[in-house]
Amino acid sequence: MSKLDAKIPEGPLAEKWTKHKNDINLVNPANKRNIDIIVIGTGLAGASAAATLAELGYNVKTFCFQDSPRRAHSIAAQGGINASKNYQGDGDSDYRLFYDTVKGGDYRSREANVYRLAEVSGNIIDQCVAQGVPFAREYGGLLDNRSFGGVLVSRTFYAKGQTGQQLLLGAYSAMNRQINRGKIKSYTRHEMMDVVLIDGKARGIIARDMISGEIERHSAHAVVLASGGYGNVFFLSTNAMGSNVTAAWRAHKKGAFFANPCFTQIHPTCIPVSGELQSKLTLMSESLRNDGRIWVPAKKEDAEAIRAGKLKPTEIPEEDRDYYLERRYPAFGNLVPRDVASRAAKERCDAGFGVNKTGEAVYLDFASAIERYGKEKAFSSGIENPTQEQIKKFGDEAIENKYGNLFEMYEKIIDQNPYQTPMMIYPAVHYTMGGLWVDYNLMTTIPGCYATGEANFSDHGANRLGASALMQGLADGYFVLPYTIGDYLSDDIRTGPIPTDHEAFDEAEKAIKDQLQKLVDIKGDTPVDDFHKKLGKIMWNKCGMARNEKDLKSAINEIAELRDDFYKNVRVPGKVSAKNAELEKAARVADFLELGELFAKDALHRNESCGGHFRDEYQTPEGEALRDDENFRYVAAWEYKGEPKDAVLHKEELIYDNIELKTRSYK
Fold it and tell me: What residues make up the catalytic site (predicted)?
């Protein structure tokens, strides 16, 4: 085991980034034309990085497995993006955003990175407005803000319930400009299969054309991984079904340390599981918690009657409702952080107060907000004694203006009108705070290999605050990586093009072809999805919202056995050298089967509860997370050694000079 050097600049926290930018090496504009960069993934982190690097003059190649860069999973983000603009005048600042993020992550993130994130957050909004992103505006034309969980200010900029899609369109338009200029070469329907190292440096990738099945070689002076998170290791998650860990995991197997894999976020506001045949889950934006009140029946017999279909939620009077978040956390109420809200929902449902047929759902109710907005509108319209019908009409219109597309989506999936009856929600896997370890420059432990956005571990600690994923992705791509990658590439101005006939490419290509052929040659009887579903159940039941030593040890053994069964009995029809979606899935599930074991190993070694990592053995008498700052105030970065059970732990000690370590409280 070794201690990792994050290369954090010296000096006061608020001056580190400015000083670092002044100290690092730059690449002359004329020399940038001779340097190639590969970007894997075209979500917000990848698209913003590719567009900015190309604008600077570098030659960029982008790779995505979708049929268009704009179909990246970033489009699924609904609620908003954080920035410390303080437009509301409610006391926000760079420091406040920094503090909320570190506290929200339960003091398991790196101070310097988080402060830099807060420092550049305002620039992101200016950039996106300049690109034409249609942020919501107040009556006077100024950009509007709303609140998200874990904060006491309004700092979240939004575009109705389509913020991720609108931000990605902005980045995509910037990308298209560079594609048109010839500075970006876009490879769609291509999947990265491996990183190629020459003399220890990342110098290219092996990719598979998903249409023809052809294996391709692509060289560059640096490789940027912006390939998203690994939530689909649970099978059921809010991630797009194609989201996977392969790019990051293949880099891990080539020497990039994997940090904090057990730090996974369970989002509290998702549409509950409906049955065994379901293949993904749908997120209801956290923004709904601004106006929606979360509750369950206060009487167990009422909950049982609802589950049996004998009682409707609208028939339960106010005095018989338990608004449990407002009861337990009066200061933050329904806007507590996601990990806190998720565990609270699970506790109520486990106690027998769940409200759908499976008993795994709580209500998200907008009746109070509809009445409040309706009365405000009636008053401002000069109606002194409005009828209940008028109030309801005005209130519905106000809610529709703020959340209309989300309500429509819910009704299409559940076939219930959320304007008339409360939504049903339950926690589900959503985001992964863990990822490839990176230093302050966003470089992994492989020289020349960078990781940005959800693919790295750097900014969110053990729990991500809502609306911070889009902020981190765009901060990394627009305002951090374009500076820091130049410091590394300044040594490559005389290197010249990287040859793809190098023996390192020969070896990497052969290894990939052999692996894919091995999967096809197994010719077992079990479809790939069966293994993925079995893995997902192990992960959810034993590595999900709550974990304990016995279950984690069992999970490690069960996953190893499942992986052994996979390589004996999986059925992959078709050929390697042709379009083969089942082969693509098999390769991804193979990686998940290794990651899942490392995930459980990481959770087992961390004998504490913090953020999204909740160990049953380590909790306060009130059921809150019990951290162990003396023994676990570090980033756990794992080095690949052949089998997940053999992975070697390296530690990066987390030092807090600017924030006092204390137990999180949202009461």
Answer: 338
Instruction: Reduce the DSSP state of residue 649 to 3 states and report it.
Output: strand
Residue 164 contacts residue 44 (beta carbons within 8 Å): yes
Reference 359, options 370, 347, 367; nearest CA is 347
In three-state secondary structure terms, 196 is strand
Quick one: CA dihedral 661, 113, 242, 225, positive or negative?
negative
* Structural tokens at position 409: 């989506």
pLDDT tens string 392-451: 999 999 999 989 889 999 999 999 999 999 999 999 999 999 999 999 999 999 999 999
Q: How far is Cα of residue 439 from the mean position of the Cα atoms in its chain?
A: 19
Residue 378 has pLDDT above 60, yes or no: yes
Provide the 8-state DSSP code for 2: -
User: What is the arrangement of strands in the sheet containing 201-209, beginning at the earlier edge strand?
Assistant: 190-198, 201-209, 215-219
Instruction: Answer whether residue 161 shows pLDDT above 90.
Output: no
Mean pLDDT of 371-390: 94
Cα gap 535→540, rounded to integer Å:
9
- Contacts with 313 (C-beta within 8 Å, 6 or more apart), sequence order: 306, 355, 363, 365, 421, 422
**16, 8 in Cβ contact below 8 A?**
yes
What are the angstrom distances between the C-alpha of 498 and each of 54, 62, 178, 222, 444? 19, 17, 22, 10, 20
Helix, strand, or coil here: 137?
strand
pLDDT of 375 over the 80 cut: yes
The one-character DSSP state at 499 is P
pLDDT value of position 3: 74
Cα separation, 446 vs 581, in Å, equals 30
Average pLDDT over residues 579-608: 98
Q: Which domains, from first to last, does the chain contain?
A: 13-263+433-492 (3.50.50.60), 269-427 (3.90.700.10), 501-626 (1.20.58.100)
pLDDT digits 0-9 by tens, 489-537 = 999 999 999 999 999 999 999 999 999 999 999 999 999 999 999 999 9
Given a contact cutoff of 8 angstroms between Cβ atoms, the answer to whether 102 and 109 are in contact is: yes
Q: Do residues 22 and 206 lie in contact, with contact meaning Cβ atoms separated by under 8 Å?
A: no
In this predicted structure, the answer to whether residue 477 has a pLDDT above a threshold of 90 is yes
DSSP secondary-structure letter at 245? Answer: S
Whole-model pTM: value is 0.96
Distance CA 645, CA 648 (A): 9
Annotated catalytic residue, options 217, 338, 563, 664: 338
What is the spatial distance between Cα 236 and Cα 542, in angstroms, rounded to a whole number?
14
Distance CA 236, CA 278 (A): 8
CA atoms within 13 A on the CB side of 17: 17
Q: Which parts of 219-336 fold into alpha helices (H)?
A: 246-253, 300-307, 324-328
Burial track 419-434 (b if 16+ CB lie within 10 A, e otherwise): eebbbbbbbbbbbbbb
Over residues 180-190, the pLDDT tens digits come to 999 999 999 99
Q: Would you call 71 a catalytic residue per the annotation? A: no
Query: First-to-last CA distance in the chain?
Result: 39
